[in-house]
Design the sequence.
């Protein structure tokens, strides 16, 4: 194989590849030998069909397969040997080809620019440690205790009030007829929470142990027996007991019930939990600082095809007229995104960062925990959408790169109080809001204004600012 690289100064390169006839013949021989043992033709024993016969029958198909294989093997090798990383999909122009001929083609490729990552070690960012004082930890534990009340049996003459626990048996009817699921034994209701049926709790206020109370309620929209939905029902309730909430004693037993070894261990766990809550938010600020610093790095030339691809993404759904009006702004955003992506990707490759299957599954499990009750839907989504899994892999990959940058860069370490952390986060949110308002004050195209109105009340998702640039397969022109 003979390879010649032209246009060495710019990012656009033409790679001329020449494969001599003998090499092509060896590929053809190997393929014919491969199919020889599998072809059954009338009048010939298996494996004994002459090549001339095979050539007449399958010549075009064999050559097509061989050509594809040679192009794939040699183009990848030509790029690798010349240390060229394509930015996008290379184009291939066949010059000379055919059976019993040499192969000559030109690979037109836009190369990814050289990226200098030495400056990453000089990147500065704020790294916060939040000091949680004992009073804050005690306050959080007291809140937990309030949400886990103990109930103590009240004297028989005690009337139930809001916040009390009422235990009852009931039988219900609609139009004086019982229905499926119309009976309940030892049903527990904390009055005031209204968790059973709307308005049910209020009618039990004032009942005592051994009372029988008739409660009227409307069966809800999600009632299993569809013919009874929105029907008025009567519940005959026999009060078994009334229990009063009792302040939870915060001691070692309380801590053990929450999974800690003792109260001291619980305090440590809660303190770490509070710290982590602030750490995650402050870490996001640090990441944004790092990405902003990377935007200042210089890259001599950014491939035009990548800019065009990014602009297409940014202008998705816009009319051609509106897209043209916003092009200058889109170009700036596109260049920043691509530059950041190139730097992160180069740094990741230099440090051989990989995402393991275990890490990917761990991230999927994290997504499942964030959507309780919808685990199956989320899992089905990832199983049916390989692109979503690839996007998730990219997120994990980027996080690993950012974490490595934090290790190698220059953090400005600060220990701050919880109040200081809240102020920093509040100020950051205000800055973000001010920027959004500033952006909104700019003249908008009709499409942008419409999108803004549509998205105003939608939950926001965080998009990574950087794109991971990947080499693509060669296509024939």
Sequence:
């Amino acid at each position: 194989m003979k390879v010649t690289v032209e246009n060495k100064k710019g990012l656009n390169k033409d790679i001329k590849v020449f494969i001599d006839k003998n090499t092509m013949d060896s590929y053809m021989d190997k393929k014919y030998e491969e199919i020889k043992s599998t072809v059954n033709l009338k009048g010939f024993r298996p494996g004994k069909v002459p090549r001339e016969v095979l050539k007449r029958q399958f010549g075009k198909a064999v050559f097509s397969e061989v050509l594809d294989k040679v192009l794939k093997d040699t183009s990848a090798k030509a790029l690798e040997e010349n240390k060229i990383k394509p930015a996008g999909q290379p184009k291939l122009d066949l010059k000379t080809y055919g059976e019993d001929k040499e192969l000559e083609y030109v690979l037109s490729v836009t190369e990814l620019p050289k990226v200098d990552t030495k400056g990453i070690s000089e990147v500065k960012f704020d790294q916060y440690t939040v000091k949680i004082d004992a009073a804050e930890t005690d306050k959080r534990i007291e809140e937990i205790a309030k949400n886990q009340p103990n109930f103590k049996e009240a004297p028989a003459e005690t009337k139930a009030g809001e916040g009390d626990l009422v235990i009852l048996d009931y039988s219900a009817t609609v139009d004086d007829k019982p229905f499926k699921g119309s009976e309940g034994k030892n049903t527990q209701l904390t009055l005031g929470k209204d968790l059973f049926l709307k308005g049910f709790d209020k009618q039990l206020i004032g009942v005592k142990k051994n009372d029988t109370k008739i409660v009227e309620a409307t069966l809800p929209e999600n009632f299993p027996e569809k013919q009874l939905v929105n029907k008025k029902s009567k519940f005959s309730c026999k009060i078994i007991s009334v229990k009063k909430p009792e302040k939870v004693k915060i001691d070692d037993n309380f801590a053990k019930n929450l999974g800690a070894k003792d109260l001291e261990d619980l305090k440590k766990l809660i303190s770490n939990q509070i710290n982590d809550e602030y750490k995650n938010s402050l870490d996001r600020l640090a990441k944004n600082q790092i990405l902003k610093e990377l935007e200042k790095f210089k890259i001599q030339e950014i491939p035009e095809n990548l800019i065009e691809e990014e602009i297409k993404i940014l202008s998705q759904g816009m009319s051609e007229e509106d897209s043209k009006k916003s092009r200058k702004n889109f170009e700036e955003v596109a260049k920043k995104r691509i530059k950041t992506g190139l730097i992160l990707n180069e740094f990741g490759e230099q440090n051989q960062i990989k995402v393991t299957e275990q890490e990917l599954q761990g991230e999927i499990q994290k997504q499942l925990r964030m959507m309780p009750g919808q685990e199956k839907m989320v899992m089905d989504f990832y199983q049916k959408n390989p692109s979503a899994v690839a996007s998730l892999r990219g997120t994990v990959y980027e996080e690993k790169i950012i974490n490595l940058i934090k290790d190698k860069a220059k953090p400005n370490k600060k220990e701050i109080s919880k109040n200081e952390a809240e102020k920093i986060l509040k100020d950051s949110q205000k800055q973000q809001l001010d920027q959004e308002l500033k952006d909104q004050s700019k003249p908008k195209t009709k499409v942008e204004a419409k999108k803004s109105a549509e998205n105003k009340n939608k939950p926001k998702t965080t998009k990574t600012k950087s794109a991971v640039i990947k080499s693509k397969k060669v296509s024939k022109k």
